[in-house]
Amino acid sequence: MIISGIRTFSSSFVRSQSRARFVVSNPRKPSLFELIRPTNEPTTSLDVPSGAINLSIDTFRNENGQPWSLPIVREVEKQLALDENLDHDYLDPQVGLKSFIEYSTHLLLGQHLGNALRENVVAVQTVSATGALRLGLEFAVKVLGLNEAHLANPSWSDYGVILQNSGISKIKDYPYWDYENKRLAFDGMIKTLRYAEPGSIVLLQCGHNPTGVDPDPAQWRRLAEVIKDQDLVPFFDVTNIGLSSGDPQEDAAPVRLFAELGIELFVAQSFSKNFGLYSERVGNLLVLSTEPSKTREIKEYLVQLSKGLWSSAPLHGARIVGHILKTQYLRAQWLNQVRMMFMRTQKSRNDFYKALMDHKTPGHWDHIIQSTGLYCLLGLSEPQRNYILRKHNIFISPSGRINVCAITNDNLGQIVHAVDDSVRNH
Q1: pLDDT digits (tens, 9 = 90+) for 53-73
Q2: The dihedral of CA 219, 224, 230, 232: what is its sign?
Q3: SS3 category, 173
Q4: Which residues form the Aminotransferase class I/classII large domain (predicted)?
């Protein structure tokens, strides 16, 4: 009952010196990911040469490679704009927009399980999943006294920064990807976590970034058993719900499994990708405690911590999401459009894979169609990626990840030719 074991904490303040206050006297300590990142590659999409095909993008794109605003989102925006009863006042500083929190939590847990665990759940609106991660981790450090976290190798590069800035002092990784065989390194994952320090946070993803590969149902159950036996604290990052399988219910199944097994947990929930509301920063932090008597206290601490991060969460995007999720006919349209997004990613994967097979490109490429969602860890080496950038003007992220939505009918041939060329010559 780690989450329920709350202790008091106090803020400390550092007295500023009277001069040279903003002079950095010591170099910033590089993050774990900066230490392992190749130094001679572009590090972000901002470094990509003008005119290059950018396969590192982090957002959904339509068949023409353009951002896609969901039609149902546009429709609801128009409805809300005409509602004269709505205003732009601050949200409830205690939690956020209550209708949004209620229905986003039901989306995650399902109505039946959500109702059954109502007294055990605390949910707070956040600034997307990044804000939820930061708030949950600060709570874990400052209130629960936790200081160690384990994250998958490879992982989303921002995790290291968020963990460090939240006060986590020990950051370790666990094997996730078998680079040689291009598949989940499940045995190594289990072996590592079985010996993790009790009380350690384990960062998990539903819709893994960057590999696009998640454990199967049996593996999720085995992982849950190890985490429960070892008294670890799972922290789910759920940013692509619906885009891994086309069905939000299926994508949320791992979280529900852990909850049904009575495991205390955190969940960071985002609606950037599955609603196309990237810049609206719509998020939710869910904390599941085994002690219902502690939830009020947990909520009070979360509210106190959130005041130092964003004070009041953004309203516009949350209002859109909440309205769609609570209205049956709108929700049905949204589910259909999520399915369309999923089908777009799968078609892109299949087209890419088939083109590589038609070219008889050396190597094993089955992992392209075995992974799902937006991302795929292509498996090219650093020299191969640099060669593709220099000769073919195509940028692949330093991790080797591509977003399959960046592949279109217009650029597919160029991308396949570049990959084939790099594999044969490097």
Answers
A1: 999 999 999 999 999 999 999
A2: positive
A3: strand
A4: 53-418
Q: Which two tokens stand for residue 159?
A: 């995790």
In three-state form (DSSP H/G/I as H, E/B as E, the rest C), the secondary structure along 103-158 is HHHHHHHCHHHHHHCHHHEEEEEEEHHHHHHHHHHHHHHHCCCCCEEEEEECCCCH
Q: Residue 147: which residues within 8 A CB-CB, separation 6 or more?
A: 141, 167, 168, 169, 170
Q: Please, what is the average pLDDT of the chain? A: 89
Q: pTM score, two decimals?
A: 0.88
The residues that bridge with 138 in the sheet, in sequence order, are none
> Rounded CA gap, 204 and 408, in Å?
30
List beta partners, residue 202. Answer: 150, 234
DSSP 8-state code for residue 18 = S
What mean pLDDT is predicted for residues 118-124?
Answer: 94
pLDDT: which is higher, 23 or 331: 331
Q: Buried (b) or exposed (e) across 88-106, using 16+ Cβ within 10 A?
A: eeebeeebbbeebbebbbb
Question: Mind listing the domains of the chain with CATH numbers?
Answer: 41-68+343-425 (3.90.1150.10), 90-326 (3.40.640.10)
User: pLDDT: is 310 or 253 the higher one?
Assistant: 253
Average pLDDT over residues 319-333: 97
